DNA sequence: CGATCACGC
DNA sequence: GCGTGATCG
């Protein structure tokens, strides 16, 4: 809008800061802030004209109209909020804090003195004293003590530190946070422009990072194993099924419950990113297989690349590698990150990847085309013409942007469609939360028969060629206890 | 305020 | 790969 506008903006913000009005604009007197707001609107209007032309030229009209429409959905979601079981939150905080104290003192027992466990530097010193060296480096080439590094450590302090960090986060970010809403309804903030790919972001609390696995507070391995955990790392019961009957397990998702008269429904796209990947790769066989809602992408890759079948001795081994490479490709992982993800050496990872591309040459061609286009042209567009400008030296992110962004646009369109249906029919059912490939809704029993099939139909509508099936679950009653819903044919 | 870590998809 | 948030120094 010109240099004078930028200067005005900078000078005015400095003026606000000087008068301690900068934290919130409404701290400033109205006669001070009003002219600024007025100019802000005028500039926004001028920018709209510029961008509307750009949107037209780049054919991003569909994305633009979805973004405007989804804003209403987000406002309604934020307004509705999500119900929380405050009794559960308050009740679990007591044993959680007790466990946290026990774990903390056990760490001090190992170190021989009290220190700030949250300080990586202080922790590094403690580990040095114990004669333990990290095999992993941070991005700034310092010794890393992240979970990945601690996994290599034999000393029992490693697991205790993992538990202290994980449990501490649950307590602070979710359980204590929950008490801030005294009426038991949390109103998180959603941003439809939160990520460059087109994904949303969420904050206060971040409902996109609510732990999926229950946390064991008993310290008794049997408790977690009984709940079906495949492993217990830092008290995290990986793969365990939460139940109120299992004493000693807590779940953040258990805190989220429907309000009176409603049930919670979770509508989940099955392997959405892998199916979108298949669509981009244009492998007809793969796309045909996606017509089966139960098709498992990782199983298929394991079978096709390494010739194993379920029940074989090597099945778990190759299924794990297949899943790792699949995610590695859509995330744009380098060979280093991939080798860590699939628990292999770099050379082995290279070989697995080569074998993968040998069987799926079109996957290689697609990835290669994307990075070459970024390097030569500087931009790419997803299935909805959403445009991404990417520096040539970051061309490896292109595949991820396309897949993640296409998924994001599909879910956004679905949310808009669901809202239109609910408004049109004047229904009580409502959308509460979106977690990238999942929509959480509250539906009264007498609307379920009507709403559920229509909502699933809206979500499954073909916006790309490949079928994207949705799985519906009902809360039992919370987000932690899901039961798959079978719709009558 | 950059770096580190943990959680999700 | 993309996020939010807490914490440290």
UniProtKB/TrEMBL annotation:
Residues 251-447 form the DNA-directed DNA polymerase family A palm domain. It holds the Pfam family DNA_pol_A. One of its GO terms (molecular function) is DNA binding. GO terms for biological process: DNA-templated DNA replication; double-strand break repair. SMART domains: POLAc (SM00482). Keywords: DNA replication. This is DNA-directed DNA polymerase family A palm domain-containing protein.
